[in-house]
Amino acid sequence: MRIDEAKLRDYFANPPEDISLDEIDLERIPRHVSFIMDGNGRWAQSRGLDRSKGHVAGVDSLRETVTTSVRLGLDALSVYAFSTENWKRPKREVNLLMHLFATTLVKELPLFHQENVRLRFLGDLDALPRETRNVFQRGLDETADHTGMTFALAVNYGSRAEIVRAAQLLAADAAMGNVSPLDIDEEMISSRLYTSGIPDPDLLVRTSGEMRLSNYLLWQLAYTEFYVTDVYWPDFSRWEFLRAVRSFQARDRRFGGVVSK
Ligand code: IPE
Ligand code: IPE
Ligand code: MG
Protein backbone atom coordinates (compact mmCIF):
# COMPACT_ATOMS: atom_id res chain seq x y z
CA MET A 1 0.00 0.00 0.00
CA ARG A 2 1.10 3.59 -0.57
CA ILE A 3 2.31 5.36 2.57
CA ASP A 4 1.12 8.87 3.42
CA GLU A 5 4.43 10.09 4.85
CA ALA A 6 3.11 13.26 6.47
CA LYS A 7 0.45 11.29 8.34
CA LEU A 8 3.01 8.62 9.22
CA ARG A 9 5.51 11.10 10.72
CA ASP A 10 2.75 12.80 12.65
CA TYR A 11 1.53 9.44 14.00
CA PHE A 12 5.00 8.54 15.26
CA ALA A 13 5.84 11.96 16.74
CA ASN A 14 7.26 12.10 20.30
CA PRO A 15 8.95 8.69 20.36
CA PRO A 16 10.31 7.02 23.49
CA GLU A 17 14.11 6.91 23.90
CA ASP A 18 14.88 3.50 22.44
CA ILE A 19 12.90 3.53 19.19
CA SER A 20 11.81 5.97 16.52
CA LEU A 21 10.51 5.94 12.97
CA ASP A 22 13.97 7.01 11.75
CA GLU A 23 15.22 3.50 12.48
CA ILE A 24 12.71 1.97 10.08
CA ASP A 25 13.37 1.50 6.37
CA LEU A 26 10.08 2.53 4.79
CA GLU A 27 11.02 0.68 1.60
CA ARG A 28 11.13 -2.61 3.48
CA ILE A 29 7.96 -2.66 5.53
CA PRO A 30 6.54 -6.20 5.85
CA ARG A 31 3.51 -6.65 3.61
CA HIS A 32 1.55 -8.78 6.05
CA VAL A 33 1.98 -8.79 9.83
CA SER A 34 0.07 -11.27 11.97
CA PHE A 35 -0.51 -11.17 15.72
CA ILE A 36 -1.22 -13.73 18.40
CA MET A 37 -2.84 -11.30 20.82
CA ASP A 38 -2.02 -13.00 24.10
CA GLY A 39 -1.88 -11.94 27.75
CA ASN A 40 -5.18 -10.14 28.35
CA GLY A 41 -5.91 -12.32 31.38
CA ARG A 42 -2.46 -11.89 32.93
CA TRP A 43 -2.59 -8.14 32.31
CA ALA A 44 -5.84 -7.95 34.29
CA GLN A 45 -4.72 -10.33 37.02
CA SER A 46 -1.49 -8.39 37.55
CA ARG A 47 -3.69 -5.39 38.34
CA GLY A 48 -6.04 -7.31 40.60
CA LEU A 49 -8.80 -7.05 38.00
CA ASP A 50 -11.16 -9.62 36.50
CA ARG A 51 -9.85 -11.25 33.27
CA SER A 52 -12.74 -9.65 31.37
CA LYS A 53 -11.20 -6.22 31.99
CA GLY A 54 -8.12 -7.44 30.14
CA HIS A 55 -10.18 -8.36 27.09
CA VAL A 56 -11.87 -4.96 27.13
CA ALA A 57 -8.47 -3.23 27.40
CA GLY A 58 -7.18 -5.44 24.57
CA VAL A 59 -9.69 -3.84 22.21
CA ASP A 60 -7.86 -0.50 22.53
CA SER A 61 -4.58 -2.16 21.58
CA LEU A 62 -6.23 -3.77 18.58
CA ARG A 63 -7.63 -0.43 17.41
CA GLU A 64 -4.18 1.14 17.70
CA THR A 65 -2.64 -1.83 15.87
CA VAL A 66 -5.09 -1.43 12.98
CA THR A 67 -4.23 2.27 12.71
CA THR A 68 -0.48 1.62 12.96
CA SER A 69 -0.76 -0.99 10.20
CA VAL A 70 -2.59 1.44 7.94
CA ARG A 71 -0.06 4.23 8.63
CA LEU A 72 2.84 1.87 7.86
CA GLY A 73 1.17 0.90 4.60
CA LEU A 74 0.73 -2.84 5.22
CA ASP A 75 -1.24 -4.79 2.64
CA ALA A 76 -2.61 -7.09 5.31
CA LEU A 77 -2.98 -7.35 9.07
CA SER A 78 -4.27 -10.52 10.68
CA VAL A 79 -4.97 -11.20 14.33
CA TYR A 80 -5.82 -14.31 16.34
CA ALA A 81 -8.82 -13.39 18.48
CA PHE A 82 -10.38 -16.76 19.41
CA SER A 83 -9.09 -20.27 18.80
CA THR A 84 -11.03 -23.51 18.32
CA GLU A 85 -9.56 -24.47 21.71
CA ASN A 86 -10.77 -21.31 23.47
CA TRP A 87 -14.28 -22.84 23.82
CA LYS A 88 -12.75 -24.71 26.79
CA ARG A 89 -12.79 -21.48 28.79
CA PRO A 90 -15.52 -20.73 31.36
CA LYS A 91 -18.85 -20.04 29.66
CA ARG A 92 -18.95 -16.56 31.13
CA GLU A 93 -15.62 -15.63 29.53
CA VAL A 94 -16.61 -17.12 26.16
CA ASN A 95 -19.90 -15.20 26.21
CA LEU A 96 -18.14 -11.99 27.09
CA LEU A 97 -15.67 -12.43 24.24
CA MET A 98 -18.40 -13.17 21.68
CA HIS A 99 -20.35 -10.13 22.83
CA LEU A 100 -17.20 -8.00 22.77
CA PHE A 101 -16.43 -9.07 19.17
CA ALA A 102 -19.90 -8.02 18.06
CA THR A 103 -20.06 -4.68 19.88
CA THR A 104 -16.50 -3.75 18.96
CA LEU A 105 -17.00 -4.48 15.30
CA VAL A 106 -20.06 -2.23 15.12
CA LYS A 107 -18.21 0.54 16.95
CA GLU A 108 -15.16 0.30 14.70
CA LEU A 109 -16.96 0.25 11.34
CA PRO A 110 -16.49 4.05 10.94
CA LEU A 111 -12.71 3.53 11.35
CA PHE A 112 -12.75 0.87 8.62
CA HIS A 113 -14.64 3.25 6.34
CA GLN A 114 -12.36 6.15 7.13
CA GLU A 115 -9.21 4.10 6.52
CA ASN A 116 -10.60 2.13 3.55
CA VAL A 117 -9.94 -1.16 5.40
CA ARG A 118 -11.44 -4.36 4.04
CA LEU A 119 -12.53 -6.99 6.54
CA ARG A 120 -12.01 -10.74 6.30
CA PHE A 121 -12.66 -13.50 8.79
CA LEU A 122 -10.59 -16.63 9.30
CA GLY A 123 -12.35 -19.55 10.95
CA ASP A 124 -15.68 -21.34 11.14
CA LEU A 125 -18.22 -18.62 11.81
CA ASP A 126 -21.22 -21.01 11.76
CA ALA A 127 -20.52 -22.01 15.36
CA LEU A 128 -20.71 -18.42 16.65
CA PRO A 129 -23.75 -16.90 18.41
CA ARG A 130 -26.21 -15.36 15.96
CA GLU A 131 -25.60 -11.78 17.15
CA THR A 132 -21.87 -12.11 16.47
CA ARG A 133 -22.41 -13.80 13.10
CA ASN A 134 -24.85 -11.13 11.96
CA VAL A 135 -22.54 -8.31 12.89
CA PHE A 136 -19.61 -10.03 11.17
CA GLN A 137 -21.68 -10.38 8.01
CA ARG A 138 -22.54 -6.69 8.20
CA GLY A 139 -18.84 -5.88 8.51
CA LEU A 140 -18.08 -7.99 5.46
CA ASP A 141 -20.87 -6.39 3.42
CA GLU A 142 -20.01 -2.83 4.39
CA THR A 143 -16.29 -3.12 3.67
CA ALA A 144 -16.41 -5.39 0.61
CA ASP A 145 -15.61 -2.60 -1.85
CA HIS A 146 -12.82 -1.06 0.22
CA THR A 147 -9.50 -1.11 -1.58
CA GLY A 148 -7.04 -0.42 1.26
CA MET A 149 -5.51 -2.78 3.81
CA THR A 150 -7.05 -6.18 4.43
CA PHE A 151 -7.81 -6.81 8.09
CA ALA A 152 -8.33 -10.51 8.84
CA LEU A 153 -9.83 -11.44 12.19
CA ALA A 154 -9.34 -15.09 13.20
CA VAL A 155 -12.33 -16.18 15.25
CA ASN A 156 -13.10 -19.82 16.02
CA TYR A 157 -9.95 -20.44 14.06
CA GLY A 158 -7.78 -23.53 14.29
CA SER A 159 -5.10 -24.27 11.77
CA ARG A 160 -5.56 -28.04 11.83
CA ALA A 161 -9.31 -27.67 11.31
CA GLU A 162 -8.56 -25.30 8.44
CA ILE A 163 -6.27 -27.85 6.77
CA VAL A 164 -8.81 -30.65 7.32
CA ARG A 165 -11.43 -28.47 5.67
CA ALA A 166 -9.16 -27.83 2.69
CA ALA A 167 -8.59 -31.59 2.38
CA GLN A 168 -12.34 -32.20 2.43
CA LEU A 169 -12.95 -29.58 -0.26
CA LEU A 170 -10.23 -31.08 -2.45
CA ALA A 171 -11.48 -34.62 -1.88
CA ALA A 172 -14.96 -33.51 -2.91
CA ASP A 173 -13.53 -31.96 -6.08
CA ALA A 174 -11.64 -35.18 -6.78
CA ALA A 175 -14.72 -37.30 -6.19
CA MET A 176 -16.62 -35.14 -8.67
CA GLY A 177 -13.85 -35.73 -11.18
CA ASN A 178 -12.87 -32.03 -11.25
CA VAL A 179 -9.41 -32.61 -9.80
CA SER A 180 -7.03 -35.46 -10.33
CA PRO A 181 -5.18 -36.43 -7.08
CA LEU A 182 -1.74 -36.23 -8.70
CA ASP A 183 -2.43 -32.67 -9.88
CA ILE A 184 -2.94 -31.40 -6.31
CA ASP A 185 -0.28 -28.80 -5.57
CA GLU A 186 0.47 -26.18 -2.90
CA GLU A 187 -1.54 -23.51 -4.67
CA MET A 188 -4.65 -25.73 -4.69
CA ILE A 189 -4.33 -26.20 -0.95
CA SER A 190 -3.56 -22.51 -0.24
CA SER A 191 -6.58 -21.40 -2.22
CA ARG A 192 -8.85 -23.57 -0.04
CA LEU A 193 -7.60 -22.13 3.24
CA TYR A 194 -9.43 -19.28 4.98
CA THR A 195 -6.51 -17.01 4.05
CA SER A 196 -7.01 -17.56 0.32
CA GLY A 197 -5.77 -14.56 -1.65
CA ILE A 198 -3.88 -13.04 1.29
CA PRO A 199 -0.06 -13.28 1.03
CA ASP A 200 1.61 -15.36 3.75
CA PRO A 201 2.64 -13.29 6.80
CA ASP A 202 6.15 -11.83 6.66
CA LEU A 203 6.17 -11.24 10.39
CA LEU A 204 4.36 -12.96 13.26
CA VAL A 205 4.22 -11.17 16.61
CA ARG A 206 3.18 -12.99 19.78
CA THR A 207 2.70 -10.94 22.93
CA SER A 208 3.20 -12.03 26.56
CA GLY A 209 6.18 -14.27 26.04
CA GLU A 210 4.80 -17.68 25.06
CA MET A 211 6.98 -19.51 22.52
CA ARG A 212 4.28 -21.49 20.76
CA LEU A 213 1.87 -21.24 17.85
CA SER A 214 -1.26 -22.49 19.64
CA ASN A 215 -2.68 -23.91 16.39
CA TYR A 216 -2.29 -20.66 14.42
CA LEU A 217 -1.55 -20.53 10.65
CA LEU A 218 0.63 -23.66 10.60
CA TRP A 219 0.68 -23.74 6.80
CA GLN A 220 1.00 -20.00 6.18
CA LEU A 221 3.88 -19.40 8.63
CA ALA A 222 6.32 -21.73 6.85
CA TYR A 223 8.86 -18.92 6.23
CA THR A 224 7.55 -16.17 8.47
CA GLU A 225 9.87 -14.30 10.86
CA PHE A 226 8.82 -14.55 14.53
CA TYR A 227 8.94 -11.79 17.12
CA VAL A 228 7.94 -12.62 20.69
CA THR A 229 7.63 -9.85 23.25
CA ASP A 230 6.95 -10.14 26.99
CA VAL A 231 4.57 -7.17 26.77
CA TYR A 232 0.96 -8.19 27.50
CA TRP A 233 -1.44 -7.50 24.64
CA PRO A 234 -3.28 -4.59 26.38
CA ASP A 235 0.11 -2.82 26.73
CA PHE A 236 1.03 -3.34 23.08
CA SER A 237 1.47 0.08 21.43
CA ARG A 238 2.60 1.61 18.16
CA TRP A 239 6.13 1.75 19.61
CA GLU A 240 6.23 -1.95 20.38
CA PHE A 241 5.01 -2.48 16.81
CA LEU A 242 7.97 -0.42 15.53
CA ARG A 243 10.37 -2.49 17.67
CA ALA A 244 8.99 -5.62 16.00
CA VAL A 245 9.44 -4.12 12.51
CA ARG A 246 12.98 -2.99 13.39
CA SER A 247 13.80 -6.53 14.50
CA PHE A 248 12.24 -7.91 11.29
CA GLN A 249 14.35 -5.60 9.15
CA ALA A 250 17.54 -6.78 10.85
CA ARG A 251 16.86 -10.40 9.82
CA ASP A 252 18.33 -12.19 6.86
CA ARG A 253 15.44 -14.07 5.27
CA ARG A 254 17.00 -16.91 3.38
CA PHE A 255 14.01 -19.06 2.41
CA GLY A 256 16.34 -22.04 2.38
CA GLY A 257 18.96 -20.30 0.23
CA VAL A 258 22.42 -19.05 1.22
CA VAL A 259 23.46 -16.20 3.52
CA SER A 260 23.23 -12.93 1.61
CA LYS A 261 25.48 -10.71 3.73
C1 IPE B 1 -5.65 -13.51 24.77
O1 IPE B 1 -5.47 -13.32 26.13
C2 IPE B 1 -7.09 -13.35 24.35
C3 IPE B 1 -7.75 -14.59 23.93
C4 IPE B 1 -7.23 -15.78 23.85
C5 IPE B 1 -9.15 -14.46 23.59
P1 IPE B 1 -5.68 -14.51 27.15
O2 IPE B 1 -7.09 -14.50 27.60
O3 IPE B 1 -5.20 -15.80 26.58
O4 IPE B 1 -4.74 -14.04 28.34
P2 IPE B 1 -3.77 -14.96 29.21
O5 IPE B 1 -2.90 -15.71 28.26
O6 IPE B 1 -4.66 -15.86 30.01
O7 IPE B 1 -3.00 -13.99 30.05
C1 IPE C 1 -3.85 -18.23 21.60
O1 IPE C 1 -3.82 -17.86 22.92
C2 IPE C 1 -5.19 -17.90 21.03
C3 IPE C 1 -5.47 -16.49 20.88
C4 IPE C 1 -4.67 -15.51 21.13
C5 IPE C 1 -6.77 -16.21 20.37
P1 IPE C 1 -4.16 -18.88 24.09
O2 IPE C 1 -3.99 -18.12 25.34
O3 IPE C 1 -5.46 -19.52 23.86
O4 IPE C 1 -3.02 -19.97 23.89
P2 IPE C 1 -2.39 -20.99 24.92
O5 IPE C 1 -3.53 -21.70 25.60
O6 IPE C 1 -1.57 -20.20 25.89
O7 IPE C 1 -1.54 -21.89 24.08
MG1 MG D 1 -3.39 -16.76 26.60
End-to-end Cα distance, whole Å, is: 28 Å
Adjacency order of strands in the biggest sheet: 3-4-2-1-5-6
The CATH architecture of the domain at 32-158 and 202-249 comes to 3-Layer(aba) Sandwich
Order of helices and strands: HEHHEHEHEHHEEH
What class do helices, strands and sheet pairing give?
alpha/beta
Shape: globular
Strand content: 5-15%
Q: What is the CATH topology of the domain at 32-158 and 202-249?
A: Undecaprenyl pyrophosphate synthetase
Task: Write up this protein.
The chain has 261 residues and is α/β, with parallel strands linked by helices. The protein has a domain at 32-158 and 202-249: Decaprenyl diphosphate synthase-like (Undecaprenyl pyrophosphate synthetase, 3-Layer(aba) Sandwich), CATH 3.40.1180.10. The chain is built from eight helices and six strands; from the N terminus they run αβααβαβαβααββα. The protein has helices spanning 5-11, 40-45, 51-72, 91-114, 130-143, 159-175, 186-190, 238-249; strands spanning 32-36, 76-83, 118-122, 150-157, 203-206, 225-228. A six-stranded parallel sheet has the order 3-4-2-1-5-6, sandwiched between helices. Strand 3 (118-122), helix 5 (130-143) and strand 4 form a beta-alpha-beta unit. Helix 3 packs parallel to helix 4 and helix 4 packs parallel to helix 5 (130-143). The longest helix has 24 residues, at 91-114. The chain is globular, with a radius of gyration of 19 Å. The model has no long low-confidence stretch (mean pLDDT 97). The site of one 3-methylbut-3-enyl trihydrogen diphosphate has 11 residues, from helix 2.
